[in-house]
Amino acid sequence: EQGARIRNLREIMAERRAARVSKIGFGQDVAAIAMDLKGPEIRTGTIEGSDYTKAAIEAGQRFKLHTDEAMRSKGSGEGVFVDHAPLADAVKPGD
Prior knowledge:
It is a single chain. This protein has helices spanning 2-18, 85-90, and strands spanning 22-23, 29-30, 64-66, 79-81. By secondary structure, it is α+β, with helices and mostly antiparallel strands. Strands 1-2 form a two-stranded antiparallel ribbon. Strands 3-4 form a two-stranded parallel ribbon. The longest helix has 17 residues, at 2-18. It is elongated and about 55 Å long.
């Protein structure tokens, strides 16, 4: 994904150089470009029993992020499956 963003940025820069831009009241050249910069979409597994079951978590309580597929439908107030393995390494207690 990062490589695609860099390629997109290069394309945008080339378009800005080649594009004709309009003058605004302050004598500045302006070209507006929108870009999707969202990060990875992280999905959680379900709480055991149903897609709509909720689990209560208390402040300060330990909560585990499981990346083992066997935990995908066995979530609880103690932990839940996540489909983005690097997340477990990226978060630290207190985050």
